Amino acid sequence: MDYDEVLARFDPVLGLEVHVELSTATKMFCGCANAFGAEPNTQVCPVCLGLPGALPVVNGKAVEAAIRIGLALNCQVAEWCRFARKNYFYPDMPKNFQTSQYDEPIVFDGHLDVVLDDGDTFRVEIERAHMEEDTGKSLHVGGATGRIHGAEHSLLDYNRAGVPLIEIVTKPIIGAGERAPEVARAYVTALRDLLRSLDVSDVRMDQGSLRCDANVSLMPKGSSEFGTRTETKNVNSLRSVERAVRYEMRRHAAVLASGGSIVQETRHFDESTASTSAGRPKETSEDYRYFPEPDLVPIAPSREWVEELSGTLPELPWERRKRVQEEWKLSDEELRDLVNAGALELVTETVDAGAPPAEARSWWVAYLTQQANTRGVELPELAITPKQVARVIELIAEGKLTNKLARQVVDGVLDGQGEPDEVVAAKGLEVVSDDSALQSAIDEALTAQPDVADKIRGGKVQAAGAIVGAVMKATKGQADAKRVRELVLAACGQ
Fold it and tell me: From CA 251, how far away is CA 261, in angstroms rounded?
Protein backbone atom coordinates (compact mmCIF):
# COMPACT_ATOMS: atom_id res chain seq x y z
CA MET A 1 0.00 0.00 0.00
CA ASP A 2 1.16 3.53 -0.70
CA TYR A 3 2.79 4.97 2.41
CA ASP A 4 0.53 8.04 2.55
CA GLU A 5 -2.53 5.81 2.43
CA VAL A 6 -1.11 3.68 5.25
CA LEU A 7 -0.87 6.79 7.42
CA ALA A 8 -4.36 7.92 6.48
CA ARG A 9 -5.88 4.63 7.65
CA PHE A 10 -3.62 3.35 10.42
CA ASP A 11 -1.41 4.36 13.33
CA PRO A 12 1.88 2.45 13.65
CA VAL A 13 3.12 0.91 16.90
CA LEU A 14 6.77 -0.07 17.19
CA GLY A 15 8.77 -2.14 19.63
CA LEU A 16 12.53 -2.32 19.24
CA GLU A 17 14.71 -5.00 20.79
CA VAL A 18 18.43 -4.34 20.46
CA HIS A 19 20.95 -7.06 21.26
CA VAL A 20 24.40 -5.85 22.25
CA GLU A 21 27.39 -8.16 22.44
CA LEU A 22 29.64 -6.96 25.24
CA SER A 23 33.37 -6.61 24.63
CA THR A 24 34.42 -8.45 27.78
CA ALA A 25 37.57 -10.58 27.66
CA THR A 26 35.65 -13.79 28.35
CA LYS A 27 32.17 -15.20 27.83
CA MET A 28 29.15 -14.71 30.06
CA PHE A 29 29.33 -17.89 32.13
CA CYS A 30 32.75 -19.41 31.42
CA GLY A 31 36.39 -18.48 30.85
CA CYS A 32 36.46 -18.94 27.07
CA ALA A 33 37.83 -16.03 25.06
CA ASN A 34 35.28 -13.56 23.72
CA ALA A 35 36.84 -12.52 20.41
CA PHE A 36 35.44 -12.18 16.90
CA GLY A 37 36.85 -14.03 13.93
CA ALA A 38 38.61 -17.07 15.47
CA GLU A 39 38.66 -20.43 13.71
CA PRO A 40 35.31 -22.24 14.21
CA ASN A 41 34.86 -24.10 17.49
CA THR A 42 38.20 -23.06 18.96
CA GLN A 43 36.73 -20.90 21.75
CA VAL A 44 34.56 -23.46 23.50
CA CYS A 45 34.52 -25.46 26.73
CA PRO A 46 32.14 -27.84 28.56
CA VAL A 47 30.17 -24.90 30.00
CA CYS A 48 29.35 -23.09 26.75
CA LEU A 49 28.83 -26.43 24.97
CA GLY A 50 26.30 -27.43 27.63
CA LEU A 51 28.00 -30.69 28.54
CA PRO A 52 26.59 -32.63 31.50
CA GLY A 53 27.92 -31.58 34.89
CA ALA A 54 29.41 -28.27 33.71
CA LEU A 55 28.42 -25.36 35.96
CA PRO A 56 28.29 -21.67 34.97
CA VAL A 57 29.83 -18.71 36.79
CA VAL A 58 28.61 -15.15 36.14
CA ASN A 59 31.02 -12.71 34.45
CA GLY A 60 31.32 -9.77 36.87
CA LYS A 61 32.43 -7.35 34.14
CA ALA A 62 29.27 -8.14 32.17
CA VAL A 63 27.13 -7.31 35.22
CA GLU A 64 29.05 -4.06 35.61
CA ALA A 65 28.47 -3.19 31.94
CA ALA A 66 24.75 -3.93 32.27
CA ILE A 67 24.43 -1.56 35.21
CA ARG A 68 26.37 1.21 33.45
CA ILE A 69 24.16 0.83 30.37
CA GLY A 70 21.07 1.04 32.56
CA LEU A 71 22.31 4.16 34.32
CA ALA A 72 23.08 5.85 30.98
CA LEU A 73 19.54 4.99 29.82
CA ASN A 74 18.02 6.60 32.93
CA CYS A 75 16.86 3.19 34.19
CA GLN A 76 16.27 1.97 37.71
CA VAL A 77 18.75 -0.67 38.86
CA ALA A 78 17.24 -3.71 40.53
CA GLU A 79 18.21 -4.31 44.15
CA TRP A 80 17.82 -8.04 43.50
CA CYS A 81 17.47 -10.02 40.29
CA ARG A 82 18.21 -13.47 38.94
CA PHE A 83 18.69 -15.48 35.78
CA ALA A 84 16.14 -17.77 34.18
CA ARG A 85 16.16 -20.57 31.64
CA LYS A 86 14.48 -19.78 28.33
CA ASN A 87 13.72 -23.19 26.86
CA TYR A 88 13.71 -23.85 23.15
CA PHE A 89 15.43 -26.20 20.75
CA TYR A 90 17.60 -24.90 17.97
CA PRO A 91 20.86 -26.43 16.72
CA ASP A 92 22.98 -23.38 17.59
CA MET A 93 21.82 -23.46 21.24
CA PRO A 94 23.75 -26.47 22.58
CA LYS A 95 22.01 -26.58 26.00
CA ASN A 96 18.51 -26.42 24.43
CA PHE A 97 17.89 -23.44 26.68
CA GLN A 98 19.28 -19.93 26.86
CA THR A 99 20.37 -18.50 30.18
CA SER A 100 18.61 -15.14 30.24
CA GLN A 101 16.49 -12.97 32.52
CA TYR A 102 12.72 -13.01 32.44
CA ASP A 103 10.55 -11.17 34.95
CA GLU A 104 13.46 -9.84 37.02
CA PRO A 105 15.78 -7.83 34.75
CA ILE A 106 18.80 -6.05 36.14
CA VAL A 107 17.64 -2.58 34.93
CA PHE A 108 14.19 -1.30 33.94
CA ASP A 109 11.98 1.78 33.37
CA GLY A 110 14.26 4.19 31.50
CA HIS A 111 14.20 6.40 28.46
CA LEU A 112 16.37 7.70 25.63
CA ASP A 113 15.74 11.02 23.89
CA VAL A 114 16.63 10.79 20.22
CA VAL A 115 17.18 13.62 17.76
CA LEU A 116 15.40 13.37 14.41
CA ASP A 117 16.61 14.71 11.08
CA ASP A 118 15.01 18.14 11.51
CA GLY A 119 16.33 18.58 15.05
CA ASP A 120 13.11 17.56 16.83
CA THR A 121 13.47 15.27 19.84
CA PHE A 122 11.44 12.09 20.36
CA ARG A 123 11.49 10.24 23.68
CA VAL A 124 11.66 6.45 23.48
CA GLU A 125 10.66 4.73 26.73
CA ILE A 126 12.79 1.76 27.78
CA GLU A 127 10.99 -1.23 29.28
CA ARG A 128 14.07 -3.13 30.41
CA ALA A 129 17.61 -4.19 29.69
CA HIS A 130 18.51 -7.69 30.71
CA MET A 131 21.55 -9.97 30.62
CA GLU A 132 21.75 -13.17 28.63
CA GLU A 133 24.09 -15.22 26.46
CA ASP A 134 24.37 -15.33 22.68
CA THR A 135 23.77 -18.44 20.62
CA GLY A 136 26.17 -20.21 18.31
CA LYS A 137 26.15 -19.60 14.59
CA SER A 138 24.73 -21.76 11.80
CA LEU A 139 26.23 -21.77 8.31
CA HIS A 140 23.88 -23.21 5.71
CA VAL A 141 25.83 -24.58 2.76
CA GLY A 142 24.29 -24.80 -0.68
CA GLY A 143 21.17 -23.12 -1.96
CA ALA A 144 20.85 -19.57 -3.23
CA THR A 145 19.85 -17.62 -0.13
CA GLY A 146 22.28 -18.75 2.56
CA ARG A 147 19.29 -19.82 4.64
CA ILE A 148 18.32 -23.32 5.72
CA HIS A 149 15.67 -23.69 3.00
CA GLY A 150 17.35 -25.23 -0.01
CA ALA A 151 20.67 -25.83 1.76
CA GLU A 152 22.51 -29.11 1.24
CA HIS A 153 23.82 -29.23 4.80
CA SER A 154 24.55 -26.97 7.77
CA LEU A 155 27.69 -26.33 9.80
CA LEU A 156 27.71 -25.11 13.40
CA ASP A 157 30.24 -22.80 15.03
CA TYR A 158 29.85 -22.54 18.81
CA ASN A 159 32.46 -19.82 19.33
CA ARG A 160 29.66 -17.28 19.78
CA ALA A 161 27.66 -19.50 22.16
CA GLY A 162 27.86 -17.92 25.59
CA VAL A 163 29.07 -14.49 24.48
CA PRO A 164 27.64 -11.85 26.89
CA LEU A 165 24.57 -10.09 25.56
CA ILE A 166 22.50 -7.20 26.83
CA GLU A 167 19.04 -7.04 25.32
CA ILE A 168 17.51 -3.56 25.48
CA VAL A 169 13.73 -3.58 25.00
CA THR A 170 11.58 -0.50 24.42
CA LYS A 171 8.06 0.00 25.61
CA PRO A 172 5.53 0.26 22.74
CA ILE A 173 6.45 3.33 20.69
CA ILE A 174 3.21 5.16 19.93
CA GLY A 175 2.61 8.54 18.34
CA ALA A 176 5.48 8.54 15.85
CA GLY A 177 3.05 8.50 12.91
CA GLU A 178 4.68 9.09 9.54
CA ARG A 179 8.05 9.39 11.24
CA ALA A 180 7.97 5.88 12.73
CA PRO A 181 10.69 4.51 10.39
CA GLU A 182 12.85 7.59 11.07
CA VAL A 183 12.32 7.23 14.83
CA ALA A 184 13.43 3.60 14.64
CA ARG A 185 16.64 4.50 12.83
CA ALA A 186 17.33 7.49 15.08
CA TYR A 187 16.83 5.36 18.20
CA VAL A 188 19.24 2.63 17.12
CA THR A 189 21.72 5.30 16.01
CA ALA A 190 21.54 7.09 19.38
CA LEU A 191 21.79 3.80 21.24
CA ARG A 192 24.84 2.75 19.23
CA ASP A 193 26.54 6.09 19.93
CA LEU A 194 25.74 5.77 23.63
CA LEU A 195 27.12 2.25 23.87
CA ARG A 196 30.27 3.24 22.03
CA SER A 197 30.83 6.13 24.46
CA LEU A 198 30.44 3.71 27.38
CA ASP A 199 33.11 1.46 25.79
CA VAL A 200 31.10 -1.69 26.57
CA SER A 201 30.85 -2.96 22.98
CA ASP A 202 32.37 -2.29 19.58
CA VAL A 203 28.75 -2.02 18.27
CA ARG A 204 29.76 -3.37 14.84
CA MET A 205 26.45 -4.06 13.12
CA ASP A 206 28.30 -5.66 10.21
CA GLN A 207 29.81 -8.24 12.60
CA GLY A 208 26.62 -8.78 14.58
CA SER A 209 27.74 -7.19 17.84
CA LEU A 210 24.74 -4.85 17.56
CA ARG A 211 21.52 -6.33 16.16
CA CYS A 212 18.00 -4.94 16.07
CA ASP A 213 14.73 -6.86 16.08
CA ALA A 214 12.00 -4.52 14.84
CA ASN A 215 8.43 -5.22 15.97
CA VAL A 216 5.69 -3.53 13.95
CA SER A 217 1.90 -3.49 14.25
CA LEU A 218 -0.86 -1.20 13.00
CA MET A 219 -3.97 0.18 14.72
CA PRO A 220 -6.91 1.40 12.63
CA LYS A 221 -7.43 5.14 13.05
CA GLY A 222 -9.45 5.80 16.19
CA SER A 223 -8.64 2.42 17.75
CA SER A 224 -6.69 2.02 20.98
CA GLU A 225 -6.15 -1.74 20.65
CA PHE A 226 -2.78 -2.86 19.33
CA GLY A 227 -2.76 -4.93 16.18
CA THR A 228 -0.94 -8.24 15.71
CA ARG A 229 2.79 -7.66 15.49
CA THR A 230 5.56 -9.13 13.42
CA GLU A 231 9.20 -9.18 14.44
CA THR A 232 11.82 -8.58 11.75
CA LYS A 233 14.91 -10.29 13.16
CA ASN A 234 18.57 -9.29 13.25
CA VAL A 235 18.44 -6.17 11.09
CA ASN A 236 22.10 -5.27 10.75
CA SER A 237 22.40 -1.69 9.52
CA LEU A 238 20.88 1.64 10.48
CA ARG A 239 19.48 2.19 7.01
CA SER A 240 17.91 -1.26 7.02
CA VAL A 241 16.15 -0.61 10.34
CA GLU A 242 14.30 2.30 8.74
CA ARG A 243 13.58 0.39 5.53
CA ALA A 244 12.35 -2.71 7.36
CA VAL A 245 9.88 -0.70 9.47
CA ARG A 246 8.58 1.17 6.43
CA TYR A 247 8.14 -2.04 4.43
CA GLU A 248 6.31 -3.84 7.25
CA MET A 249 3.96 -0.89 7.73
CA ARG A 250 3.04 -0.99 4.03
CA ARG A 251 2.72 -4.80 4.01
CA HIS A 252 0.55 -4.92 7.14
CA ALA A 253 -1.73 -2.22 5.74
CA ALA A 254 -2.19 -4.05 2.44
CA VAL A 255 -3.07 -7.31 4.21
CA LEU A 256 -5.52 -5.63 6.60
CA ALA A 257 -7.14 -3.51 3.88
CA SER A 258 -7.82 -6.65 1.81
CA GLY A 259 -9.61 -8.30 4.75
CA GLY A 260 -6.71 -10.56 5.73
CA SER A 261 -5.11 -11.12 9.10
CA ILE A 262 -1.55 -10.53 10.21
CA VAL A 263 0.27 -13.65 11.34
CA GLN A 264 2.35 -13.20 14.49
CA GLU A 265 5.71 -14.38 13.20
CA THR A 266 9.35 -13.56 12.75
CA ARG A 267 10.44 -12.03 9.45
CA HIS A 268 13.76 -11.84 7.61
CA PHE A 269 14.90 -8.61 5.95
CA ASP A 270 16.45 -8.81 2.47
CA GLU A 271 18.94 -5.98 1.96
CA SER A 272 18.88 -6.26 -1.83
CA THR A 273 15.11 -5.87 -2.20
CA ALA A 274 14.36 -3.88 0.99
CA SER A 275 11.59 -6.39 1.72
CA THR A 276 10.85 -9.01 4.37
CA SER A 277 9.94 -12.67 4.13
CA ALA A 278 8.25 -15.02 6.60
CA GLY A 279 10.37 -16.83 9.17
CA ARG A 280 8.64 -18.90 11.83
CA PRO A 281 5.53 -18.47 13.97
CA LYS A 282 6.40 -16.26 16.94
CA GLU A 283 6.33 -17.91 20.34
CA THR A 284 4.82 -16.27 23.40
CA SER A 285 6.60 -16.12 26.74
CA GLU A 286 4.58 -19.15 27.91
CA ASP A 287 6.03 -21.22 25.06
CA TYR A 288 9.53 -20.69 26.43
CA ARG A 289 8.63 -22.26 29.82
CA TYR A 290 10.77 -19.82 31.77
CA PHE A 291 11.87 -20.88 35.24
CA PRO A 292 14.61 -19.61 37.60
CA GLU A 293 18.12 -20.80 36.73
CA PRO A 294 19.04 -23.22 39.57
CA ASP A 295 22.80 -23.16 38.90
CA LEU A 296 23.30 -19.41 39.44
CA VAL A 297 22.82 -17.34 42.57
CA PRO A 298 20.75 -14.12 42.39
CA ILE A 299 22.49 -10.79 41.80
CA ALA A 300 22.03 -8.04 44.38
CA PRO A 301 24.05 -4.93 43.45
CA SER A 302 24.73 -2.79 46.50
CA ARG A 303 23.65 0.85 46.37
CA GLU A 304 27.28 1.81 47.04
CA TRP A 305 28.47 -0.14 44.00
CA VAL A 306 25.77 1.35 41.77
CA GLU A 307 26.73 4.82 42.95
CA GLU A 308 30.38 4.07 42.24
CA LEU A 309 29.54 2.88 38.71
CA SER A 310 27.45 6.00 38.15
CA GLY A 311 30.61 8.02 38.73
CA THR A 312 32.38 6.14 35.92
CA LEU A 313 29.96 7.24 33.21
CA PRO A 314 31.76 9.26 30.52
CA GLU A 315 30.54 12.40 28.83
CA LEU A 316 27.45 11.11 27.06
CA PRO A 317 26.88 11.80 23.35
CA TRP A 318 24.20 14.47 23.81
CA GLU A 319 26.35 16.28 26.39
CA ARG A 320 29.31 16.12 24.00
CA ARG A 321 27.21 17.56 21.17
CA LYS A 322 26.31 20.59 23.23
CA ARG A 323 29.94 21.12 24.21
CA VAL A 324 31.44 20.73 20.74
CA GLN A 325 28.82 23.01 19.23
CA GLU A 326 29.96 25.75 21.59
CA GLU A 327 33.68 25.01 21.24
CA TRP A 328 33.65 24.71 17.44
CA LYS A 329 31.12 27.55 17.05
CA LEU A 330 28.81 25.42 14.91
CA SER A 331 25.39 26.64 13.89
CA ASP A 332 22.38 24.44 14.65
CA GLU A 333 22.26 23.51 10.95
CA GLU A 334 25.95 22.55 10.83
CA LEU A 335 25.56 20.43 13.95
CA ARG A 336 22.44 18.78 12.56
CA ASP A 337 24.25 17.98 9.29
CA LEU A 338 27.03 16.27 11.22
CA VAL A 339 24.53 14.30 13.30
CA ASN A 340 22.43 13.28 10.29
CA ALA A 341 25.55 12.12 8.45
CA GLY A 342 26.47 9.98 11.46
CA ALA A 343 29.73 11.91 11.61
CA LEU A 344 29.61 13.92 14.84
CA GLU A 345 30.90 11.25 17.20
CA LEU A 346 33.51 10.21 14.66
CA VAL A 347 34.71 13.79 14.26
CA THR A 348 34.87 14.40 18.00
CA GLU A 349 36.80 11.17 18.55
CA THR A 350 39.19 12.20 15.76
CA VAL A 351 39.69 15.57 17.48
CA ASP A 352 40.19 13.77 20.81
CA ALA A 353 42.93 11.76 19.06
CA GLY A 354 44.78 15.00 18.25
CA ALA A 355 43.39 16.28 14.94
CA PRO A 356 42.25 19.90 14.43
CA PRO A 357 38.42 20.14 14.26
CA ALA A 358 38.31 21.65 10.75
CA GLU A 359 40.47 18.92 9.23
CA ALA A 360 38.60 16.18 11.09
CA ARG A 361 35.25 17.50 9.85
CA SER A 362 36.54 17.81 6.29
CA TRP A 363 37.77 14.22 6.11
CA TRP A 364 34.66 12.60 7.59
CA VAL A 365 32.05 14.76 5.85
CA ALA A 366 33.73 14.79 2.44
CA TYR A 367 36.04 11.95 1.39
CA LEU A 368 35.00 9.34 3.95
CA THR A 369 31.29 9.96 3.41
CA GLN A 370 31.93 9.49 -0.31
CA GLN A 371 33.73 6.21 0.42
CA ALA A 372 30.89 5.01 2.63
CA ASN A 373 28.41 5.67 -0.18
CA THR A 374 30.63 3.93 -2.72
CA ARG A 375 31.06 0.89 -0.50
CA GLY A 376 27.37 0.77 0.44
CA VAL A 377 27.84 1.06 4.21
CA GLU A 378 26.97 3.55 6.91
CA LEU A 379 29.73 6.02 7.75
CA PRO A 380 30.43 4.55 11.24
CA GLU A 381 30.74 1.11 9.66
CA LEU A 382 33.75 2.05 7.52
CA ALA A 383 36.82 -0.01 8.39
CA ILE A 384 38.79 2.97 9.67
CA THR A 385 38.94 4.41 13.17
CA PRO A 386 39.01 8.05 14.30
CA LYS A 387 42.52 7.42 15.64
CA GLN A 388 43.67 6.26 12.20
CA VAL A 389 42.11 9.32 10.52
CA ALA A 390 43.86 11.55 13.06
CA ARG A 391 47.18 9.90 12.17
CA VAL A 392 46.62 10.58 8.46
CA ILE A 393 45.91 14.23 9.27
CA GLU A 394 49.09 14.32 11.37
CA LEU A 395 51.16 12.93 8.48
CA ILE A 396 49.82 15.71 6.24
CA ALA A 397 50.69 18.34 8.85
CA GLU A 398 54.21 16.90 9.11
CA GLY A 399 54.64 17.31 5.37
CA LYS A 400 54.98 13.57 4.83
CA LEU A 401 51.77 13.30 2.79
CA THR A 402 49.93 15.49 0.33
CA ASN A 403 46.13 15.41 0.35
CA LYS A 404 46.20 13.23 -2.77
CA LEU A 405 48.62 10.76 -1.21
CA ALA A 406 46.62 10.82 2.02
CA ARG A 407 43.53 9.63 0.16
CA GLN A 408 45.54 6.67 -1.13
CA VAL A 409 46.60 5.90 2.43
CA VAL A 410 43.00 6.06 3.64
CA ASP A 411 41.96 3.73 0.82
CA GLY A 412 44.64 1.29 1.94
CA VAL A 413 43.37 1.32 5.52
CA LEU A 414 39.79 0.82 4.31
CA ASP A 415 40.93 -2.16 2.25
CA GLY A 416 42.51 -3.81 5.29
CA GLN A 417 46.15 -3.16 4.38
CA GLY A 418 47.14 -2.05 7.88
CA GLU A 419 47.71 1.11 9.88
CA PRO A 420 48.36 4.41 8.04
CA ASP A 421 52.13 4.26 8.59
CA GLU A 422 52.21 0.66 7.35
CA VAL A 423 50.32 1.61 4.18
CA VAL A 424 52.71 4.53 3.57
CA ALA A 425 55.72 2.26 3.96
CA ALA A 426 54.31 -0.62 1.91
CA LYS A 427 53.28 1.59 -1.02
CA GLY A 428 56.13 4.09 -0.79
CA LEU A 429 53.73 7.01 -0.58
CA GLU A 430 55.73 9.46 1.52
CA VAL A 431 56.25 12.92 0.05
CA VAL A 432 59.57 13.47 -1.74
CA SER A 433 61.02 16.28 0.39
CA ASP A 434 64.69 16.03 -0.65
CA ASP A 435 65.44 19.26 -2.56
CA SER A 436 68.22 17.59 -4.53
CA ALA A 437 65.86 14.89 -5.78
CA LEU A 438 63.27 17.53 -6.66
CA GLN A 439 65.88 19.69 -8.38
CA SER A 440 66.92 16.79 -10.58
CA ALA A 441 63.31 16.28 -11.71
CA ILE A 442 62.92 20.05 -12.25
CA ASP A 443 66.07 20.25 -14.41
CA GLU A 444 64.78 17.39 -16.56
CA ALA A 445 61.42 19.09 -16.98
CA LEU A 446 63.00 22.46 -17.90
CA THR A 447 65.27 20.75 -20.42
CA ALA A 448 62.30 18.92 -21.96
CA GLN A 449 60.26 22.15 -22.26
CA PRO A 450 62.73 24.91 -23.17
CA ASP A 451 60.00 27.24 -24.49
CA VAL A 452 58.23 27.11 -21.12
CA ALA A 453 61.52 27.69 -19.32
CA ASP A 454 62.13 30.80 -21.47
CA LYS A 455 58.67 32.18 -20.61
CA ILE A 456 59.35 31.77 -16.89
CA ARG A 457 62.75 33.45 -17.23
CA GLY A 458 61.00 36.26 -19.11
CA GLY A 459 58.74 36.93 -16.14
CA LYS A 460 55.66 34.85 -17.03
CA VAL A 461 55.70 33.01 -13.72
CA GLN A 462 52.27 31.48 -14.34
CA ALA A 463 53.94 29.25 -16.92
CA ALA A 464 55.67 27.48 -14.02
CA GLY A 465 52.52 25.39 -13.61
CA ALA A 466 53.48 23.27 -16.61
CA ILE A 467 56.86 22.45 -15.08
CA VAL A 468 55.30 21.75 -11.68
CA GLY A 469 52.83 19.39 -13.35
CA ALA A 470 55.66 17.54 -15.13
CA VAL A 471 57.57 17.15 -11.86
CA MET A 472 54.49 15.90 -10.03
CA LYS A 473 53.97 13.33 -12.78
CA ALA A 474 57.62 12.26 -12.63
CA THR A 475 57.41 11.81 -8.86
CA LYS A 476 54.03 10.03 -9.07
CA GLY A 477 52.37 12.83 -7.12
CA GLN A 478 54.74 12.45 -4.19
CA ALA A 479 56.34 15.89 -4.43
CA ASP A 480 55.24 18.93 -2.45
CA ALA A 481 53.80 21.07 -5.24
CA LYS A 482 54.36 24.30 -3.33
CA ARG A 483 58.04 23.51 -2.78
CA VAL A 484 58.43 22.41 -6.41
CA ARG A 485 57.07 25.77 -7.61
CA GLU A 486 59.50 27.63 -5.36
CA LEU A 487 62.43 25.65 -6.77
CA VAL A 488 61.25 26.10 -10.37
CA LEU A 489 61.05 29.88 -10.01
CA ALA A 490 64.44 29.95 -8.30
CA ALA A 491 65.97 27.88 -11.09
CA CYS A 492 64.65 30.35 -13.65
CA GLY A 493 65.88 33.41 -11.74
CA GLN A 494 62.46 34.51 -10.51
Answer: 11
